[in-house]
Design brief:
mainly alpha, globular
């Protein structure tokens, strides 16, 4: 599940599911504004792990800036892989599906986001929203947006950021909620990659069967080809429908959609 649109929608689905189902936890009792901020962050963060692939959707999002950063992350990821692999790990040189595809990276991204937002919501949160909105927009629009049109992505991302800031007047989003949203988005990416043919080394550096880069994956019969018919015709549409449904349920729970109060979107 490594195409941009499917990853992006899986991030939104994961955030919607977590907030809709955790009704007794603070993360399930967010204000509509905070929920929306988290949705943008989670949707964008679902593409973040592919920063280690120079040819990925995320590497093209902001033109030369994201492309250069992606090349650097790819080199770092490749170095970490070569340094920590065991004799049973494959002898590959590339950095894709390496460091950024581990729970260690997801935790780092979550903690970093929390720290940045805690430091200054006045400027840090809008900047984060702009960056992750760019990733979300690029991911969702990847199939019909010109692949090199960084200007269009930038303008649309700026519009989303401005609209959300104007809507919330002064965002009071919880720093912890923002961090959780980014972590949830990254984890959604890992699950998507885990069900593809290559698997995903989520548990690095924990050694499994002698491998520190063990590719976590279900049995082969349950895996799918990246960008194949199963993903594009079945998984992608199902993920999109579920993300919209659970998103509406989560927003309904925050009181943002009073006109849907007569509909039991999440019967529990």
């Amino acid at each position: 599940m490594s195409t941009g649109p499917t990853h992006a929608m899986s991030g939104l689905l994961a955030w919607s599911a977590v907030t809709a189902l955790a009704s007794t936890h603070p993360i399930g009792q967010l204000s509509p504004q905070s929920w929306a901020v988290g949705a943008v962050l989670a949707t964008g963060a679902a593409l973040l792990p592919d920063l280690d692939h120079p040819g990925s959707t995320i590497s093209r999002t902001f033109g030369a800036l994201s492309s250069g950063l992606s090349a650097g992350i790819n080199m770092l990821s490749g170095f970490v892989y070569r340094t920590t692999r065991t004799k049973k790990d494959s002898n590959r040189e590339g950095g894709h599906r390496g460091l950024t595809h581990t729970l260690v990276f997801a935790l780092f991204a979550a903690v970093f986001t929390t720290a940045v937002v805690q430091n200054s919501q006045k400027w840090a949160l809008p900047v984060l929203m702009f960056v992750f909105a760019g990733l979300a927009v690029r991911g969702i629009m990847n199939d019909w947006c010109p692949k090199q049109d960084a200007l269009l992505i930038t303008v649309v991302s700026a519009g989303i950021t401005w609209a959300m800031i104007a809507w919330t007047s002064q965002t009071n989003a919880s720093a912890a909620a923002c961090g959780i949203a980014v972590g949830v988005g990254c984890f959604a990416h890992y699950i998507g990659d885990a069900i593809t043919e290559q698997g995903c080394p989520i548990l690095w550096p924990v050694p499994i069967m002698g491998k520190t880069w063990f590719p976590v994956a279900p049995p082969k019969i349950m895996r799918m080809k990246t960008g194949g018919v199963v993903e594009m015709a079945i998984v992608g549409p199902v993920v999109t429908i579920l993300s919209v449904w659970l998103g509406l349920a989560a927003l309904q729970a925050t009181g943002a959609l009073p006109f849907l109060n007569w509909v039991d979107l999440l019967p529990l």
